[in-house]
Design a protein that fits this description.
Length: 258
Amino acid sequence: MDIYTIQSGHRSGIYNMALDEALLEHVRHQAEPLLIVRTYRWEVPTLSLGVNQQVRDIRFLLEFYGKHSGCAEPVKAVVRRPTGGRAILHGQDISYSFITNEPAVLRQSLKDSYAMYAGIVRDTLARLALAVNFTDSAGDRDYLRSPVCFETHTSSDLVGEDGKKLTGSAQLRRTGGLLQHGAAFLEPYGISEAQFYQALTESTASTLKQSAQPCPVTLLDNLKPLRLELEALYWKESGEILDSASTINGSHLVPASC
């Protein structure tokens, strides 16, 4: 199986979600097994919503992040993810994604494949000298009730020694392909995207016993038309979300720029 890696750096929320989805569409139409591992940051504090999350949650989310952030206007943009899960305020995290068409992985249950990639992230953090553990299942019910991802946890999330949640992720499956992406809040530990990317690359290669190489530039160039098409759709939905929330103290929000 070929393993390709991408370090995207700081990008808009719309670009990040569109590229993840474009990569999923690419791999699921390939005949040979392929895994793409990507890391990325967010240009501005961006609130990402799960694909099925209700717009009515925005009132609570704006109030919540207004009270729990040191910034006067912490949320600068909003985007809906193609995956499920709860809202995340990005900006201080390093995000990552695994995109594959590997038949053996696609035959796994959602829980098992989710746990496999979470295990790679756990090993990544260990390589960065962070002691982390999986949580137990006690928080699963609270997670389902809360619109805020990092205030609760599921049994596959990773927490630090202090019990604080460090990572969370979500998965999307389409015929022939799988996307699992997540966020690791590592800014308090002084870990850069470059360091995380290197450790994630090493952990993935070690776990799967395969070599990894940077993604060919030509692949990303070939995906640009699809990425731009998806960006337009994400932009439209972001605008619709903000229009719906315009009376909920959301006048400072703007769609994440392309």
